[in-house]
Amino acid sequence: DNVDIDFNGLNAMAGLTFDTGFTADYWLNFTNGDAGSNIFSNAAVLRANGPARNFGGNNLDYGAYNGGAKASGNDPVNYDGTRADIQDGFAPQIFCEVGPRTAGLPYLSGGTNPDPQPNKILVTVDNRNVAGVTSGDANALAAAAVTTGIEYRIDLAELGWDGTSCIKIAGFINNGGHNFLSNQVIGGLPVGTTNLGGPAGVNFANIAGDQFIQVGPCGAACPWQADGCYADYDNNGGIDGDDVIAFFADWDNGLECADADAANGVDGDDVIIFFGAWDAGGVGFAGCE
Hints:
This protein is α+β, with helices and mostly antiparallel strands and about 290 residues long. The chain has helices spanning about 100-110, 140-145, 155-160, 240-250, 270-280, and strands at about 25-35, 40-45, 60-70, 75-80, 95, 120-125, 150-155, 165-170, 170-175, 180-185, 215.
């Protein structure tokens, strides 16, 4: 019961099950048709309990789309159109040509229809890499050397990022009706895996490995860990007042990087350890001598 977008292609994937640890909350798709002369993209916000609806059961979430001829200003596709259907409560489905979250949130909070805002979502493709692209197994080394393909740029507020969580991305190539999945999947499939077929029968949790990737702050090292010197908290090569500011910014927010004593909690003991390292100019601490 997601929004109707791309000729209801999103709902054609009903029943698809993702890996444990992956919960989809935003959907994007891309079509490179007509020998590459036209490119189109669709987007929608996904919610754990289905789309937001009004008292009459009609959608308050948007199905978003944009694109057209590359030669007519659609390279990249920029979700900067003028359509944003009024949420009058009577239309079963509403559509827009801008970022679906950007269009939807003001209405859901009682606001008014926003002006179209460009650069929330941009997408393009460089499809020149066709040599060796067949229906058989890929050569892993050749595939890893490819530097062209589809590229998205998404405003993080439009994506709904909370500013701290790891961003997880699942993806795959399917057919035009979205009711048949290929064996080309982000994160990879075991060698020899054939096309996956109908989405309702696909459970990525039952396939070896993760069929998604992670980007952003996914257990990344804290800044100070780059040189191993806790006193140089901002890792700028010196120990000064900026390190104190950087430390307390993390400490006030309870961030793991400020857990100086590695006690799985941020408390006063961490302040003592940090200032011990800072007062000593890093002498005696790993990486600071």
